[in-house]
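In the design runs reported in the main text, the only information available to the sequence generator was the tokenized backbone. The following block is the verbatim input for one such run; it is reproduced so that readers can re-run the procedure and compare outputs position by position.
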């Protein structure tokens, strides 16, 4: 996974990079290898804002959190991103496994694998 870091009014330290890499490993397990991520860390007076976005193909997931501490904001943003990835994966698998409305997967009265003898 390609990760791009941006620091606005702050320096992106190795501590933050390690924290992001651990969090994005969990997301990578869900979305796959072809993902790219952008991490933007912003400091505005007393607020620390972490904005993490992951794009996979045509899908993109964005999460941003703010806190008094940058590590807390990063952890919260990565946790939200993981939940978003899980939700999207469940949505895709649910759509794939259910027939369209109005269509029946098996005609009425028939059981798959059972031959009717009369």
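Verbatim output:
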């Amino acid at each position: 996974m390609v990760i791009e870091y941006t620091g606005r009014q702050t320096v992106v330290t190795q501590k933050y990079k390690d924290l992001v890499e651990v969090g994005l490993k969990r997301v990578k397990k869900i979305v796959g290898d072809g993902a790219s991520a952008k991490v933007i860390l912003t400091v505005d007076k007393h607020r620390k804002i972490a904005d993490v976005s992951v794009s996979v193909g045509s899908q993109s997931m964005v999460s941003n959190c703010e806190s008094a501490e940058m590590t807390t904001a990063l952890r919260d943003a990565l946790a939200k991103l993981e939940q978003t990835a899980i939700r999207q994966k469940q949505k895709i698998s649910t759509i794939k496994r259910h027939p369209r409305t109005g269509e029946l997967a098996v005609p009425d009265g028939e059981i798959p694998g059972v031959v009717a003898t009369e």
